[in-house]
Amino acid sequence: MSKLAGKVAVITGGNSGLGLATAKRFVEEGAFVYITGRRQEELDKAVALIGANAAAVQGDVQSIEDLDRLFARIRQEQGGIDVLVANSGIVAPQTLLEATEDNFDKTFGVNVRGLYFTVNRALPLLSDGASVIVVSSIAANKGAAGYGTYSASKAAVRSFVRTWTAELIERGIRVNTLSPGPFDTPIMDLQASTPEGREAVRANWAASIPMKRLGRPDELAAAALFLASDESSFIAGIDLIVDGGMTAL
Ligand code: NAP
Predict the structure, then answer these.
(1) What's the pTM value of the predicted model, to 2 decimals?
(2) Do 80 and 188 fall into the same domain?
(3) Taking the alpha carbons of 58, 133, 62, 144 in that order, is the dihedral positive or negative?
(4) Is residue 34 within 8 Å of residue 11, measured between CB atoms?
């Protein structure tokens, strides 16, 4: 039976990688899905790929105006939201020695501020019993050279999940963290400047995972479906790690 029949879902950063795989899976399970992102062309391609029951709303999570426009449209078209996946994120490796204000502000602007106001602006639309999924990373609990701002931004959003669980649990809204390990998505390409470098990034991450391969986006989508659906009805405030054993071993 479809696990999200009749549900309305919103996935920020749904035009690529993990967000797109999740959007596809949610639609297969009966949901109507709104995807967002800055690049209209990628949004159009994603909607065509998903095929039906999906709509794209262009916008930057750093812009309150864009967020308000997104949720105003959903209010008008659907009246409410059952599942929110706050997934938009960027990585821009830089060591402490190389630190720039621009890197700090961009990483925290998208990954933390953008996510914070995404959930804040969605709140009036969330149905009682809604599921909110915050995409963090196993990087939140690890030290890897060059990932200072990224890892700290992901630790911040994991922290939000605890507070928001406390604030929303009485409405039956479940907030959970979903923490991927390394997955094969375009975000890997942001971690090197040449094709050889990008290949090396993928190979190095794969070698560091006990399963000796990168995750496939559909494997993250399956975990997102679990948190989105009633299958996880007694789960709130957790960090669901999907990483091929990387954190545990
Ligand atoms: P991706 O393919 O690069 O997707 C990132 C998404 O975020 C894109 O849809 C992008 O769309 C959107 N985005 C970026 N900046 C945005 C902004 N300012 N406003 C709105 N949307 C924005 O990478 P991914 O791997 O699927 O990443 C999804 C999430 O998983 C991220 O939060 C990432 O940190 C997390 N994660 C990924 C991995 C991994 O190995 N892949 C591991 C751990 C955590 P536009 O560019 O069109 O805006």
Answers:
(1) 0.98
(2) no
(3) negative
(4) yes
DSSP sequence for 29-61: TT-EEEEEES-HHHHHHHHHHH-SSEEEEE--T
Quote the radius of gyration of the chain (alpha carbons, Å). 17
208 falls within a domain: yes
In this structure, the chain runs to a length of 249
Q: Residue 107, SS3? A: helix
Residue 183 Cβ < 6 Å to ligand 1: yes
Which mutation among 10, 11, 15, 16 tests ligand 1's pocket best, with the greatest number of atoms within 8 A of CB? 16
The parent domain of residue 193 ranges over 184-214
Summarize pLDDT for 21-64 with one digit per residue, the tens.
Answer: 999 999 999 999 999 999 999 999 999 999 999 999 999 999 99
Which position among 34, 116, 147, 150 bears the catalytic label?
150
What is the total count of domains within the chain?
Answer: 2
204 and 146 share one domain = no
Ligand 1: which residue has its CA nearest to atom 8?
A: 13
Regarding whether 205 and 136 lie in a shared domain, the answer is no
Measure 211 CA to ligand 1 centroid, in angstroms: 23
Q: For residue 1, tell me if it sits in a domain.
A: no
Nearest alpha carbon, ligand 1 atom 31: 89
Q: Is 147 a catalytic residue?
A: no
